[in-house]
Amino acid sequence: MSAHPLLSAPSAEVKSKIASTYDAIATEYNAWTASHHAFRLQYLNRLVPQLSAIDNSRILELGAGAGDPGTVLLATLPAAHIIANDISGAQLSLLKARLAAEISAGKVEARQGDMMDLEFAAGELDAVVGLYSILHLPREEQGELLRRVGSWVRAGGWLLVNFGGKESEGSVQMGWLESKEEGKESQNAMYWSSWSPEESKRLVEEAGFRIEVAEIGGKEGSDADFLWVLAQKVG
């Protein structure tokens, strides 16, 4: 069986397909992932107490999706400003509807686009959260993103991310989460990649963070483990 052409495609093409696929399956994805909210909340609830005493905190959420449960929980922090980034316009439209009051109040800001195109000043952010999102980047971009995040987060700030739990140069699944229609071939495709857990941890540390939590958990299906990392910026 030949390799899927997306595995050798330029990064922009990969991301365009990810965006269009998430747009197409937004409803199915959000229904499916609701059963996994406990995994996210388990780690988000380790981060939130670290941020609750910070006035006017600025938090970047990479891959915010429709806002549940991450943005919703982060928006409960006092005087917090959450920048909710996602590559899918359909998902962010759902987030805007879900968090209309918080957006109107200035607590939440939705930014659509590739996370690699984001720019922030050095030390501008108090925390960055990226759950089930960085693993959509080609592997060579993951380390570069973490280096940028290390610049954006102030000394003493926080990083909460997860990565694939085993090494993969890249994988593609056609028709992911779609209802199968007989005789119809799906045009949607999802892409993931990951370093080994040891390398992912090394990249986090190289970006200037001290790892407080690093553990494998959050199994989804028969072969999808994740490395969850909570780390504090050294300064």
TrEMBL record:
Keywords assigned by UniProt, alphabetized: Methyltransferase, Transferase
Molecular function as annotated in GO: methyltransferase activity
InterPro entries in UniProt: Methyltransf_25 (IPR041698), SAM-dependent_MTases_sf (IPR029063)
Occurrences of domain Methyltransferase (ranges): 59-157
Signal peptide as annotated in the record: none
GO biological process assignments: methylation
Organism domain of life: Eukaryota
Protein name: Methyltransferase domain-containing protein
